[in-house]
Write a structure and sequence with these properties.
Number of domains: 1
CATH superfamily: CBS-domain
Largest sheet: 4 strands, mixed
CATH class: Alpha Beta
Helix content: 25-40%
Strand order of the largest sheet: 1-8-7-6
Number of helices: 7
Radius of gyration: 21 Å
CATH topology: CBS-domain
Shape: globular
Structural class: alpha/beta
Distance between the termini: 71 Å
Number of strands: 8
Strand content: 15-25%
Length: 196
């Protein structure tokens, strides 16, 4: 077999269409469905990322363009420093920073408002494999979160990694109903932000 053979080609005809990516989840789920059916698997879907020095306006535009409400904050791939959500981009915290620093909102960066990796909770992938969507809903509700991370355990040769994301909006879309979530402060930093 010739390793440098020219491949056959042909002329395209009018009416040719572009292949459309299949949605990663096409059928509705129930509370009894496997939890992994509502997880965005980052080994199959590229993670949406942003650099910590990115201006908030640019981060917001990236979210709109990508159709997401959360970005992983990354200086150098693949190490995660934290995450920033659409809710982080506007609100009291940003106004306080603007006032304290004498800045305009347009001068704030992702690093000013992101949630640090050390304060994020994650569900082990092994637990997701035996859980139901109902368990995911209960966890979102219990922690008052719009997003949950799913982690895959590391081993001697490789550290652990974030393997997936659960988005409340995606779960609601797949369930066909809203999930009532009340934000709950779980760390001193979150309590401090809530009181400020």
């Amino acid at each position: 077999m010739n390793r440098n053979a020219v491949l056959p080609t042909f002329r395209l005809l009018p009416g040719m269409s572009i292949a459309q990516a299949e949605p990663w989840q096409t059928h509705p789920v129930t509370l009894d469905s496997p939890a992994t059916s509502v997880m965005t698997d980052l080994s199959r879907v590229k993670a949406a990322t942003v650099h910590p020095t990115t201006l908030l306006r640019q981060a917001e535009q990236a979210m709109i363009y990508l159709g997401v409400r959360m970005l992983f904050v990354v200086s150098e791939m693949p190490s995660i420093e934290g995450l920033v959500t659409a809710n982080d981009l506007h609100g009291d915290r940003q106004m306080r920073l603007v006032h304290e620093r004498g800045l305009h909102w347009a001068e704030l960066t992702v690093s000013d408002v992101m949630t640090d990796l050390s304060t994020l909770d994650a569900i082990p992938l092994e637990a997701m494999r035996t859980a139901s969507v109902g368990d995911v809903v209960a966890t979102l509700t219990r922690f008052g979160r719009d997003h949950l991370l799913v982690s895959e355990a590391g081993n001697d040769s490789a550290p652990g990694r974030v393997r997936g994301v659960i988005s409340r909006t995606q779960v609601e879309r797949q369930l066909g109903r809203a999930i009532e979530v009340t934000p709950i402060a779980t760390t001193f930093a979150e309590i401090e932000r809530a009181l400020a």
